[in-house]
Amino acid sequence: MRPVLSVTTVSLACCALLAHSFPFHSLSHDDSLLGEQRQRPMGPGRIHTPSVLDNNNPLSGNTAGDYARFDNHRVYRVEISSMDELKKLEALVEAENLDLWTNLRIGTVDVRVPADKVALFEEATNHFVAGGPGAAATVMIPNLQDLIPHQAPSAAATSSPPVVPWNYTDNSFWTQYHDMATLNNFTEAMIKEFPQLCKRVSIGKTYEGREVFGMVLHGYKDRKKERDGRSHRKKKKKHGHKKKSHKDKHKKKNKKSHHHKGKKHGKKHGKKWATPAPADSEERLSLPSQHEKENGWGIWKWIESWFKEEEDDEDYELDLDLDEDEVSSEWEEVYDDDDDDDDDDDDEDSDDSDDDSDDEEDDESELDERFSRLWDAMKLPNISRKPSKPKKHPKGIVIHGGQHAREWIGPAVVTYLAKELIKGYRKNKKITRILDRFEFTIVPVLNADGYVYTWEHNRMWRKNRQPTSVPFCPGIDPNRNWGYKWNTGGSSGNPCNEGYHGPEAFAAAEPRMMADYIKKKDNVVGYIDFHAYSQLWMSPFGADCSQTPKDEEDILEGGIGAAKALFDMHGKKFAVGSVCNIIYQASGGSLDWTYAEGKVKYSYAVELRDTGRHGFLLPEEEILPSGEETTAAVVYLMNFIRLREKQWGF
């Protein structure tokens, strides 16, 4: 029989310095285990890590090799109406090492209480919370074990058939939660299936050596093809469409050898095209120095293509749609346009044969004089023969789930969002627009070590798995360890607490690697960190409640619109506001750092379904509707940013 570490020993080790702050009750002194472990053989493929954690430690959450049980653990909802009540509840939670399911705040606070501490908790809250006995705390979940699998989900999954190629149009993937290996397989499958749209991106490695990776999504719109199609449709509508005769084609071929008709390109009809410079304006004759490999006639052909060949007496102008977001890219498209005959080209008028040859010669002489200047210019060093296609620098959007390990709905929703963006490209107008204009980095699980631990050992694990100063209390809360105003309130310095902020900012691998990624990209304008639960759409700040973002109006307007789009899908209401206004002070959070230090204007943290009936154990039948409503919200928000931020070139 292995030795059992008692609650007495653990409590004294973790909380000796904290117990004096709680004026109501002393610590419990029985030897019952948090989770009431039952011995179970290790499943095939299970990992057994020899360490002090094997000693049935209640604060480690389980015996290695077993799946933690929570028989008769209760989740209470406590009504807090004053700062005095809040501070007393905080002291109780800290002293008894209780598991907060929601942040401490004025209003309602959800707390998980082990069976052996139920009486203590009820007596304490009745003592300091207004309303008298029985009014202070409401039981939300009477027996937590009823909502948790009796066997480790990862062990149960070992008997399942291997993952087969996945049909991305099938939503059956989102009828259940998936372990880390399956989520990784999903990401790899999407990258392989849609290589033009997706590429793999590695964010970094966790303490236990797992790679945190995701996918980068960005559109591949063929603007030349679409422009040619639009131009042809406009011409067709304007001139009609009829089959050219052999004579017409022969005449056009001869005509193209001269290319320009002086009479037709006189000041009257060609005033929008014929100028002292061999282009529509001198500014258009920009000669960047990045491309020097083209042969000498490249610039001639480029300029030649800017002369419009008139087919009637109407004036012409550049054929650019109002929604074209990269006008300069038309340069290369015009340059690349060939002179081959096409039966679908516009018909040419028969009176073109009446053009005067003397006028043609005069016009050609004038053109020769103009081009001679260009030949002299081309002798200069570092002069491009061809206009370069502008480099695209799409603004970045970073989205991830799974920063807290037990919040399984986050990775499920993030993968659904990724699928919908991929599936909707070139089929859904709004999705196509945002993928053409933004580069999405989507990471299903940021806290990979913790997520694996929830599947193999303890469903209620929140933190990562890094060692701390207390050997039997591993883990740092990644979302209390970001570096902006770290450890200024709303987190814990107790390594055994679920909200432990770590020994220093960015001590945890997960926030450090994501912050490094955002800084390296240097173009991220949107960030969403998905959590559970409470149905909140939150904005900065959380560390300093006296601080207001300078972009607060835009940020809140985007969040309110996203919540409205979400509500329109399935009728779920999400509160919108800053972390401080919606919940309470919480320092070391991701969205504070991304906004203040990462310079990401539209930074949000979203608490998904539900409002407490199931808490972190949201039923699987709610995965799909949660994914649908969240996708609607994100698509709205991205289009809001696209339209609001015109100065970014959208």
From TrEMBL:
Family assignment from sequence similarity: Belongs to the peptidase M14 family.
Keywords: Carboxypeptidase, Disulfide bond, Hydrolase, Metal-binding, Metalloprotease, Protease, Secreted, Signal, Virulence, Zinc, Zymogen
GO MF terms, alphabetically ordered: metallocarboxypeptidase activity; zinc ion binding
UniProt signal peptide: 1-21
Catalytic residues (positions): 607 (proton donor/acceptor)
Cofactor: Zn(2+)
Species per Swiss-Prot/TrEMBL record: Actinomortierella ambigua
All copies of domain Peptidase M14, residue ranges: 176-641
Main location: secreted
Subcellular compartments: Secreted
PANTHER family, sorted: PROTEASE FAMILY M14 CARBOXYPEPTIDASE A,B (PTHR11705), SLL0236 PROTEIN (PTHR11705:SF143)
Xref: Pfam families: Peptidase_M14, Propep_M14
Residue ranges, compositional bias (Basic residues): 230-272
One cellular component (GO) term of this entry: extracellular space
Known function: Extracellular metalloprotease that contributes to pathogenicity.
Sequence ranges of Basic and acidic residues compositional bias: 281-291
Highest taxon of source: Eukaryota
Gene3D superfamilies referenced in this protein's UniProt entry, alphabetically: Metallocarboxypeptidase-like, Zn peptidases
Positions of region (Disordered): 35-58, 222-291, 321-368
Single biological process term from Gene Ontology: proteolysis
Protein name, per record: Carboxypeptidase M14A
Comp. bias regions, Acidic residues: 321-367
